[in-house]
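hey can u check if this looks right to u? its 242 residues, i copy pasted from the old doc so theres a chance i mangled smth
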Amino acid sequence: METVGLDVLDQRISGCRACPRLVEWREEVARTKRAAFADWTYWGRPVPGFGPPDARLLIVGLAPAAHGANRTGRMFTGDRSGDVLYQALYDVGLASQPTAVHADDGLELYGVRITSPVHCAPPANKPTPAERDTCRSWLVQELGLLRPTLRAVVVLGAFGWQAALPAFAGAGWTVPRPRPAFTHGGHVTLDAADGPGLRLFGCFHVSQRNTFTGRLTPAMLRDVLRTAAETADLPVAGRDPR
């Protein structure tokens, strides 16, 4: 039942046209393209979550990249941020391969799902507060479907953290007040009146601004992913190449 529910939700997300500015931008990018991808047929629609419906660990980003997921139709696929994230997931034993090139490249995630609080590529990578709030209902529904198995969440970046906290509350977990602030490596437990609690971990976003400057290193990312996976009772690999 949950599998069917999540499949249907993903289809509904892919057809959403609720935010005129985002619809116009994602479709314009898909028409004009980037020269390096001139032979691609861009996805150009909202990008649904990626990963199994019984995931124990959820990774929450920000929004699809204009020439990454907006091109390929899969979260963090086809851009340098995804290169960093999937390499780390592979190193920790949570992905079948270290690269994500296109939606049919055979990549599988083990016990992990990836989503975002905003499902359309925004201009300058900056959704407005209204667009963030409009998209929240999708995340609330996704969390509700994942709730039977979900035990831990890694949120990438302060925007994702701030956007996701109300969604966790909407899906039935209790968010402390005052709301916990975002910190890299920080964590908080969200209790629930009618089920298991949820461990929430903060991690700097895998954007080039952070990875190129060394603010987020591969080792730092692996440490957060490994800790969250162990908290969610997922098996992790011992390899730590860099």
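The mean pLDDT is 95.
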